C-alpha cells in the first residue's frame, strides 16, 4: 500500500482506487452422509441488505471437511452492520444449518480481499522491486479466485527479473508482458461485475446478466468504482441498529469461541502493531458520528468501547485478538487506524484454512 502510494503506481496503472471485501471463513468436519467431495456452491445477496454487495462460498474438501464463508464488500453504508454476525446469520439458513448440524468446527479465520479488479491494477514496477499476486490485486471477483493469477504474475515477474540481471533489460518488461498475458484478458472480461453492484442488488444482478450473457465480457463500456470503502460509511443517524440473533453454540458462535479456533497469539509485551494516528478520533468522531463501527467491522472484536473511571466510553484495543485481516486499516471512516506487521511472527496459527 505504501509503495503504491509513494511511487504513484495507481496513477500510472489503471488509475482507480482499490476496493475491498472482508472474507470470514470456517472449516468444518461434517457427517459422512452429507459430504460431497468436490462440490462447490457460491451464493450472492442474503443475508446482506439490498444495498450491500457480498456472497458466500461452500467447498466440500477431502476427509469430510467443508470450507464455508461469507464475503462482505467493505463499501457497505450502514455503520451498524457486523460482517461477523452476518456470517453467523447466514449459517442459520435451512439449507446450510442442515448441512452443518452434527459437525464440528475445526478452524476460524478472516482476511480482506482486493476486489478492484481490472480498473484498479497498479503499475507493478517500482525502483528495486515489483508487485505480484494479491498485493497488486489480480483477484477474479465473480469467481472469488486469484491463486492462478498470482502464480502467473510471479512467473512473469521472475522472467523479467532474469532478463534484467542477465541481459540488462528493464523490469518494465514485466508490466508489458502482464498486459499481453491471459491475466489481463481474464480480468478485463470480469471488470464490470463488481462495480455493477454500486447501484444496488437488483440493478447489479441485471447488469451482471447483460455483461455475462449478451456482451460476454466485451461490453463497450467500463464501469467505475464508487467511493473508497472508508468514505462509503454513512452517519449512524441515517440508519437503525441491527439486531442479530444470539449464537446457539451449535452452528453459530460468539467471537471468543471463534477466536479460540483461529489459534491467534501475540506476545503481550511487544510494540503495538495497531496504531491510532490521532488517539482522540475514536471518542470525538467515530463514536458520536458513526456509533463506533470499529467494534463491529472487526471480526475479532479487537476494538471495543469501555467506560473509564469517570464513566466515559474509551476505545480499548485488544491487539492480542488480531487476525491480521486488515479490515480496520481499510474501513475506519477517518483512516485513523494503521495496521503494521507485528513483532516476532505473531498472529493466527492456521493449519487447515
UniProtKB/TrEMBL annotation:
Location(s), subcellular: Mitochondrion inner membrane
Keyword Transferase on entry: no
Reaction(s) this enzyme catalyzes, per UniProt: a ubiquinone + reduced [electron-transfer flavoprotein] = a ubiquinol + oxidized [electron-transfer flavoprotein] + H(+)
PANTHER family documented for this protein: ELECTRON TRANSFER FLAVOPROTEIN-UBIQUINONE OXIDOREDUCTASE, ELECTRON TRANSFER FLAVOPROTEIN-UBIQUINONE OXIDOREDUCTASE, MITOCHONDRIAL
GO cellular component, one term: mitochondrial inner membrane
Protein's name according to its UniProt entry: Electron transfer flavoprotein-ubiquinone oxidoreductase
Recorded superkingdom: Eukaryota
Function per UniProt: Accepts electrons from ETF and reduces ubiquinone.
Domain ETF-QO/FixX C-terminal span(s) in chain numbering: 249-351
InterPro entries documented for this protein: ETF-QO, ETF-QO/FixC_UQ-bd, ETF-QO/FixX_C, FAD/NAD-bd_sf
